[in-house]
Design a protein that fits this description.
Layout: E1 2-5, E2 8-11, H1 14-20, H2 24-43, H3 50-59, E3 65-66, H4 67-74, H5 81-90, E4 94-98, E5 104-108, H6 110-132, H7 136-150
Antiparallel strand pairs: 1-2, 3-5, 4-5
Helix pairs in contact: 2-6, 3-4, 3-5
Protein name: MarR family transcriptional regulator
Organism: Aurantiacibacter xanthus
Domain HTH marR-type: 21-151
């Protein structure tokens, strides 16, 4: 089997691949990598990256949230927020609106709402396709298992 690492092809011997296939952390990373690459491809026509969609999705929740609050909810580091907000603002998908004092809300514009509606269709189809790859007998367990893993190390 051949995989890419930092853009370089690496041949993995079948025996080594079988050993890796028994490691849940490895399988989870590989599955996430494959799924996110596919999701990014599907979002590309909307001119949105996954991280930008995440911000737009949280900002469009109906609450007046600051960039810090959006970052906390989406688990995005504070230093990375301007790099995500600036392109969204430049595209006219969000605007910044003063709240009280120094707090500034991130508001999804009408154009942003329209893009979010398009993205939701992509998300729904992607999620449907993703679940269809999982054997039927395992689907009910997938979400609870992933949710448990999401909190790994936070206790």
């Amino acid at each position: 089997m051949t995989v890419c690492w930092r853009g370089l092809p690496i041949v993995i011997e079948p025996k080594a691949d079988a050993a890796l296939a028994e490691l849940p952390g490895y399988l989870l990373r590989r599955a996430a990598s494959v799924m996110m690459a596919e999701f990014a491809t599907r979002l590309a026509p909307l001119d949105l990256r996954i991280s930008e969609l995440t911000v737009l999705f949280v900002a469009g929740s109906g609450e007046e949230l600051t960039s810090s609050e959006i970052g906390q909810i989406a688990d995005i580091k504070r230093a990375n927020m301007p790099k995500l907000l600036d392109p969204l603002e430049h595209q006219g998908l969000i605007r910044r609106e003063p709240l009280d004092g120094r707090r500034i809300a991130i508001i999804v514009t009408d154009k942003g709402e329209a893009r979010l509606a398009e993205a939701r269709k992509v998300i729904e189809q992607f999620e449907t396709d993703l679940l269809e790859t999982v054997p039927t007998r395992h689907r009910a367990h997938l979400i609870p298992a992933l949710d448990a893993l999401r909190n790994y190390g936070k206790e």
